[in-house]
Amino acid sequence: MTRTMAAANSEFCISLRNRWVAIAVVLMALFSFVLSAAGSAPTGQLGVDKLSITVASLTSLAVYLVPLVALLMAFDAVAGEIERGTLSLMLTYPVSRAEVLVGKFVAHLGILALALAVGYSIAAAVALWYDPQASDGIPALIRLFWSSLLLGATFLALGYAISAIARRPGAAAGLAIALWLVAIVLYDLALLSALVADTNGAFTKQVFPWLIVANPADAFRLYNLSASEATMVATGIGGAANTVPSSQALASMVIWPVVAFCLAIAAFRRVVP
Fold this sequence. Notes:
Elements: H1 2-15, H2 19-38, H3 43-46, H4 50-74, H5 79-84, H6 86-90, H7 97-130, H8 138-166, H9 169-197, H10 202-214, H11 216-227, H12 246-269
Helix pairs in contact: 1-7, 2-4, 2-7, 4-7, 4-8, 4-9, 4-11, 7-8, 8-9, 8-11, 8-12, 9-10, 11-12
């Protein structure tokens, strides 16, 4: 544990100098402020507090931004070490490969938590300034925070696996962007196309609920929207929030980080410095 935390502390200090960290914090702060400031318009019509509306908007933002930031931080975690020639030196220390990866994971997850805390705190502050009754939405915002960390943990681990498999930063970056496009964009488009083509309703009733919770991004979106009083503002796949049990979405969010991290460790163990 001591060696793991030492590795995490070292990686955290190094990552703080990474430009992606500054970009992540600025993006989360900027978008959270804009969404919170603009989210007051529909609250009177929907009959819910401003922060609940903001949480629904932040959910739609986080499902795109959190996986992207996580992959950008993780894609060169192994490939970068190989290219710089530091992996061979690192493995000479009395620390296992699993401990190295856990250290990187803890550090990157801490940075992601920092970015999310800054962004979501700004959103809450703006919402409370405009609407004192917005405090009713604080539980939903807290739920959004820790579920965002689970989503980020999944894509951090997947990023490590890609980095170990590609072994070159350029190739790893390309695979990371491809994963983001498939998991976040193309997957939902495919599901929507299948729903439109489903004439007898068999796919919608029997297959669709399983496919939607199989994707960690969709599970994250459904879990948060199902807990929000502002689900009526959700469109597209998010409109299915009331058709899939939140317990299934939560199970998917918990299982995915574990599975992804096991894949990352397995891929890292096959790397020859």
